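Teaching assistant's notes for section 4

Start the section by putting this record on the projector. Ask students to predict, before seeing the second block, whether GPI ethanolamine phosphate transferase 3, catalytic subunit will look compact or extended. Collect guesses on the board.
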Amino acid sequence: LNIPSRWPVVLFLAWVCFLFFAGIGLFMSGFLLTRIELASSSSCSDPLVPPPWERQSLPPGSCWAPQRFSKAVLVIIDALHFEFARFDPAKTSPLPYENKLGVLHQLATAQPRHARLYRFRADPPTATMQRIKGLTTGSLPTFIDVGSNFASYAIQEDNLLAQLVQNGRRVVFMGDDTWEGLFPKKFFRSYFFPSFNVKDLHTVDDGILQHLYPTVDSGEWDVLIAHFLGVDHCGHKHGPDHPEMAKKLTQMNEMLRSLVDHLGNDTLLLVAGDHGMTETGDHGGDSEKEVNAALFVYSRTPLFGSGPPEEPETIPQVNLVPTVALLLGVPIPYSNIGEVMADMFAGDGDTVSAALQQLSVYHINAKQVDRFLQSYSLVAQDLPAEQLQHLQELFSSAVEEHTQLLTQVQGTMVPPELEPRLGSLISRFQHYLREARAVCTQSWARFHPPRMVGGCILIASSCLLCYMASELAMSSQSFCHSCLLYPLFWGPVGAAVLWLVHVFTQEGLDLLLVSSWAAAVSQLGFFWHWWGQHFKRAPWLGLAFPMGILFFRCGAMFSDSFVVAEARVTPFLLASLVMLLVGKLHWDGRLTVPEGPKQQLLGFSSYRREIWYLLCLVAMLLVCVRLSSFFHQCREEIPQCRPSVFLSPLASLRNTRAKNLFYLLCVALLAGLVYAVQSWLRHYGNLNSSGPLVLFVRWGFPLVVLCIACYWAVASSADDSLGKLQELVQVAVVVFPRAVYGLASVGLLLLLCNPMTVFAKDTRESAGSIVTPYLGVPGSEVDFLHVIPQIYKRMQESQKSWLERGSCRATIAAYGLGSVYSAALVIALTLLGFLLMLLHSERLSFAFLLLFVEAFVLLHIHTCARAEGTRLAPCQPFSVPWYAVISWLLAASQFFYSTGHQPIFPAIHWNAAFVGFHLDHNTNLLPAVLVGANTFASHILFAVGCPLLLLWPFVCEMSNSQRKKLKKESREELQEVEEHMMEMRLRESPEEFSTALLRLGLKYLFVLGAQLLACVCAAMILRRHLMVWKVFAPKFLFESLGFVVSSICLLLGISLVMRVDCAVSSWFSQLQLR
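Reveal the predicted structure now:
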């Protein structure tokens, strides 16, 4: 490859990736729009207070309703599931998370009118930031907000804290530093502690306990918020059913017991969980265990008019906002859609006065919600008009009846004929508020259909462009150069036109819209020029079975059942594709030899011997597929599923013998991987030189394995160490991963600087010796079998040259030149594999072993199928068939699930963000990279290794030629051996080599784009489906991120091949100078 023909390939593929990225961004902007946040805020002067009955007036310091408490303490115990707070005295042997908060049960039973426990139902998504927004604004956060859970932005919408500060209340906060980003400069005093390190169970809680009681006793506060994180982090690290959870809940119990003793009579205590947790300690979705939190309310003065119900009442979390606001005498936030908890407004009076007080707060609440709905409908215009009209009728009739009823009330004396109307009117207000919340919940996602359709069309046209370009590139040598005109010229032209339109219309410039417009215009230029061109179309029969498998996979994206079961569907499709490939080869007669009398007598002998090797490879693939299913993660839609035991870290094992056995197996696996890679490189002569990269492979790889083994050792025993040893362990769990990061970075840097792994022996011929003895590193017998033909050939050439020219010439023996491209990719993949295994739990290294073995088997199946396919009908040696690309991507999807992942937020391995980092991160970029690498590990490895599909058949030429040579010693066979140049055949046709890389990249992007298009269409068509936010939207997001990661890694893999080619060109230039 020369320079002009090399880099246009990468640039063209980068342009195609940009087209897809623009389509994804445009669709996301229409599908995942955040809810419109109104800038309005409530104030004491708002005319929402109902007409008072006689002798009712607002005391000083109250807004809208009489203030019942002057102080409030809100204790948020992150991930406090309802079952953690419930106490069942009948249980004699409770689980670690049961019956630990005994103080709540004691207060509720001893003082039933002072304390009460509720089921506190969270609205999904159940990520902490979204729950804080719900607990302070009384509104419902949208789905896309979950993506900014660890990059919180300030809440601009009217909220409870803003109302408290606006009305002169002193708010003190201590705990989770997420609040600092959401409410900057809102606190009278604050004590923030880092929250992201889910392995740290004690820093936040101990910091709160250090300041909690002195702050309460000082009295310099009106509202105190304490957000504890230990229970949530314990769930993430150990799960709820673990002794550490019992310790943490016991600590919370003692904290609450002491806190109650420090409270005054004018203080309201609220203990709440922002969300629940699953059996594995995760959260983020909408399963029953995730949304089922607990709320406990306590006051030293009587709060409730009657005792608690037999079964705790279930209330939505948004109901807390209007309740606390009116109890503290501040206005309800403007955008609240919650319903007041009326039983907390009953007071000490009789039933009639309690009902009148409840009607008053219901009236205020209903007016506030009606005002919000009217304002929101004018701005957003996405709430159904019929439902809004129905809600308006419900509201008007209830308010009118309430006004009429108050005119007939004499003081607190209600005529007997009016008493039944009180309960009925309360029910009507409740009905209105719950209907209003339901309408908002159903219609909250404000879609932008034009952008959604535009993004879908852009992705579909990008897929069509990939297919057309992959076929056109085969028939046009200068295709890549001419195609670069379209993104370089038409794209900026389209962007400039749109910019001019915005200038003349005086509208804001949307960068995403400009990018999408530029992408679309550059695509149109491409199609305009190439649409009428004739190109060689592949036979439809040959495309039928691989494209059929791809069609079935894409069609499954439209079924929530198939998406849920995709971890089993994808391996089945991969196995089916390989079996169909073998069947097609048999159908085409590629696996049989011409029949003779003897073959007809013994039918089985009519098959070629190579078929048994191919069948063994297929059997190995099926075994790998089957074994990979043991490393699965579960979704809550499959209740009978149990997560794989291999997903949990070794530290969670209580059996020391089992822990040590698994540890030794994991370390042996790493050592085996290094041995296999070094053996492969030595076999092909790529370990014979003394260059920096080869030295790193020899000595750096074992050192990386040693560091990973040491990290696993200290991480698995970190909880068991004590005293000074604990401090040493805390240092070690940071040092060893960073050493791995450093060594891997050095290896990748060496690979980029000098990727040549070739040993060249340059000798001067003399009369006494034709070939000097080999002084390199001794190799195996196979190496010498490969070298002998080369020596024989050089001897012939040198002798012929000496006879013709009468002079002596230099002879060159190059070791590893025939596999120099593949060697660089194998080294890169090994280094990436080490990094990715470090980010996963120890026992998932078994899954990575299966990944490498299955990739190796797929490459050999592709090579065998190609060799058998070209036996009767020669095909282009530089073309990678569609079935190879599709099977490669199916394997990538398969191991996404087999490394313990699922396309749902609760299944994300957040622990990966702290491998090598003990304290909190200063930026969100690094943890995002680490978590992303953990999540899309299989996408990274298969995308970087994609060029091996082109290179591997050339690498395998040597072994085939050696087998032929050992069987026949004729001169013709020797001549055939000499003609096998392995990967150097690619340099004989540089234009075809660059075209082959371009076509391979385009095919890879086409298959990725087809899967992405299916997810996009499913999310768009089924956007009102019951399971859209639970199944289709997360699947779309994960597929989009997977596409971005895969496409970038594909460009990196192809760029690495280009870099090796540059180094090979320089190497040949230096030889010519000699």
